[in-house]
Amino acid sequence: MGTKTLFLTTGMLISGVCNTILNKYQDMTCVEDCDDPKKSKYFEQPVWQTFNMFVGETLCYILVYAILIWEYHQARKYVPLTVDGTLTAADSEGITVVEESENNVLTTKVEEELTGQRVFLFWLPTLCDICGTTLMNVGLIYTTASVYQMLRGAVVLFTGSFSVLFLRRRLYAYHWFSLFLVVLGVSIVGMSSILFPSAEKKIDSNSAHTSKGSTAIDASIGVFFVLFAQIFTASQFVIEEKIMEKYRVKPLRAVGLEGIFGLSTVAVGAIILHFAIGIHHPGGFFDISAGWNQILSFRQIWITGIAICFSIAFFNFFGLSVTRTLSATARSTIDTSRIVLVWIVSLFLGWESFSWFQVTGFVILVLGTFIFNNVIRPPPCFTVPSPNLQEIEPLLSEDHEHM
């Protein structure tokens, strides 16, 4: 592994782990009645955390803007080329003709530039991102960081199913077997958190850590919200792929666009929800004034909030760089390793206890994900495809970070 690859891989892992750990740190921060464990209240503001995520994604657009300026000056040095069977050319209307060769068969693919009003197509996957991320933020409040990270692996199941239904992709027999393993692994991880709930620690700058009770009901709520969120996340992936099949757009620019759309949508939506629901439920998820006061009043919350924004930006940058340098499958494999690191850090910090039941579910989940992404090659007898459907590409577990 080269120095550049090692640097990108390490950066992706560290920024990804920091994102999950910092969000959980915020959830565990006591904001009221910290001296009385029975009355203690914690920072439970999933809408503000979603807002944080989109701030981080918007930061990516600064880099996009710098790249566009550089490419513009570079493009002025050269005369546009015409298609001769091997080259790519773009005309004044923003249409790109690409000739690809696969299995000695030359095919022509026409792509349009994503310009003008077409950029608003990314608002639809952004809405899915908002719903999925907010639901996952709620789930993280009620479950541990490692269980949360493991349950997110269920996105493979929904994305694979939606790819067959809406993108007409082809699943081999081993794909279906891997999805079965994913369901089994997720089920075991979910049950481990319900049957053996961990006692967490509250974080208070004025006192030592004390236990925060976790019940089977809390764990069940957390598991439900995280799993339900994967439906929206999978929908986002499928819609993004559909858009990027037709229009030519760089991944980093797509992240930046979703950041801008998400930031504006969450800002407007939060105000509406505050007056519709929040003012009737003080201190609840949609009481944005309470969340804002808590952020300003507790240094550890606003500092970690800023850190989360940058961890999101760096995670997207490193992740997309790994995809370009290695492959989408490599990025998927590396990102799966983040689950292990989140678990180890949580154990080291004393946020949860070791469970062999959870480890078993994690191993099965990872095995299913690796098989689905062709990291582990199945026997030839399992490579019989479903008829009349296109072959499915190795699935990128997370096109960009959602929490």
Helix content: 55-70%
Please state roughly what percent of the residues sit in beta strands, choosing from under 5%, 5-15%, 15-25%, 25-35%, 35-45% or over 45%: 5-15%
CA radius of gyration: 22 Å
Which term fits the overall shape? globular
Characterise the protein shown here:
The chain is globular. It has twelve helices and ten strands. It is of the alpha/beta class and 403 residues long. β7 and β8 form a beta hairpin. A four-stranded mixed beta sheet has the order 3-4-5-9. It has one domain. The chain is 62% helix and 9% strand. The longest helix is centred in the middle third of the chain and has 31 residues, at 216-246. α2 (46-75) runs antiparallel to α3 (123-142), α3 runs antiparallel to α7 and α9 crosses α10.
Walk me through the topology:
Elements: H1 3-27, E1 30-32, E2 41-42, H2 46-75, E3 89-90, E4 95-102, E5 105-113, H3 123-142, H4 145-151, H5 155-166, E6 169-170, H6 173-195, E7 200-202, E8 210-212, H7 216-246, E9 247-248, H8 251-276, H9 288-297, H10 299-325, H11 328-348, H12 356-372, E10 390-391
Parallel strand pairs: 5-9, 6-10
Antiparallel strand pairs: 1-2, 3-4, 4-5, 7-8
InterPro entries: EmrE-like (IPR037185), Nuc_sug_transpt (IPR007271), UCP036436 (IPR012404)
Main location: membrane
Membrane topology: Multi-pass membrane protein
